[in-house]
Amino acid sequence: MFTGIVAAVGQITQVTPLGSEPEAGVRVAIDAGGLPLDRAKLGDSIAIQGACMTVVALHERSFEVDISRESLNRTSGLDQPGEVNLEHALRLGDSLDGHLVSGHVDGVGGVTAFDAVGESVDLRIIVPAHLSKYLAYKGSITVNGVSLTVNQVIDQEEGSEIYINLIPHTVQVTSLRNLDVGASVNLEVDMIARYVERMMR
After folding, report:
1. Are 12 and 75 in a shared domain?
2. 108, pLDDT greater than 90
3. Residue 32 belongs to domain with CATH number
């Protein structure tokens, strides 16, 4: 479990195929940036751009994870060098400042706007249609591992467009600062909404 409060922005430094077959996954080396690794050990879970991955190699300032082809097909931004949001798994007794996040990406959305509005940024994302029923005004959503609040939902044929206000702090301390129109983002809907939908059905 995670909270969606990014602990540090790291950097994917190397992506190595785990085989020559088309279905082979990759091993990804990540510079941990400001993420303290003194509490980490082999087998621990770390959220990378919102996707929960298992540490398979640990170094002083970096770590490595193996990512299956299935995970690569269902996520964005894990198969090439670049900045990534990082968060250690939640421990009992830790502060829950965001919302409960599983680290299981539900779908990939597309950025439709990333515009400065005063001191903040207006972020808009098209969410796939199969996730639309989990979206609500002032509800929670995780975007690339960041817990955010939905300010508006507009249903469309191809899905729903959500409006999110990013405060300057969020832009400064996460990889969301690199977004632009057309960018793909990893999305995880609020797990409570999933349970409610299941019970109602």
Report:
1. yes
2. yes
3. 2.40.30.20
Q: Are residues 59 and 137 in the same domain?
A: no
- State the residue range of the domain holding 23: 8-88
Residue 96 near residue 3 (C-beta atoms within 8 A): yes
Among positive and negative, which fits the CA dihedral 134, 181, 156, 70? Answer: negative
101, exposed or middle or buried, with CB in 10 Å at 0-12, 13-18, 19+?
buried
Residue type, 46: I
Mean pLDDT for 93-117 is 93
Integer angstrom CA distances of residue 88 from 39, 60, 143: 9, 16, 16
Whole-prediction pTM value?
0.94
Q: Which residue has the tokens 């430094």?
A: 13
Task: Give pLDDT, residue 198.
Answer: 86
d(CA 147, CA 29): 25
How confident is residue 95, by pLDDT bands cut at 50, 70 and 90?
confident
113 and 195 part of one domain:
yes
- In a domain? residue 32: yes
